[in-house]
TrEMBL record:
Organism: marine sediment metagenome
Domain Leucine-binding protein: start-end pairs: 35-87
Gene3D superfamilies, alphabetized: 3.40.50.2300
InterPro entries recorded: Leu-bd (IPR028081), Peripla_BP_I (IPR028082)
Leader sequence residues: none
Pfam families per UniProt: Peripla_BP_6 (PF13458)
Name assigned to this protein: Leucine-binding protein domain-containing protein
Keywords: Signal
Length: 98
């Protein structure tokens, strides 16, 4: 009987410790997820790019309004490619978050 009480006490104590420390882990501020795109705002693909940009921003807003992804907010970054390959490749070299 005494051994059973000790085992029960040990198990309950271990569970309280485990669940007690979970609050500390989940209470930490989570960094936002970065989502990037390259949509042309001017030039040959500007009209389509502007529409795609607005659609992407709408999707990010809906995800954030629903609570994010696994509790993390989504941050949207768009680079204007200006319908030029040189601008696009230069922007990718500068911005390492892509």
């Amino acid at each position: 009987m005494r051994i059973w009480n000790f085992k029960t006490f040990t198990v309950i104590l271990a569970l309280l410790f485990c669940f007690g420390t979970l609050g500390v882990v989940f209470a930490q501020e989570k960094e936002p997820l970065l989502v990037g795109s390259i949509w042309d705002q001017v030039g040959f693909g500007g009209q389509i790019g502007q529409t795609c940009y607005r659609g992407s921003q709408l999707a990010v807003d809906l995800v954030n309004k629903a609570g994010g992804i696994f509790g993390r907010k989504v941050e949207y970054i768009n680079i204007d490619g200006q319908s030029e390959l040189d601008v696009i490749s230069g922007a990718l070299k500068e911005n390492k978050s892509f």
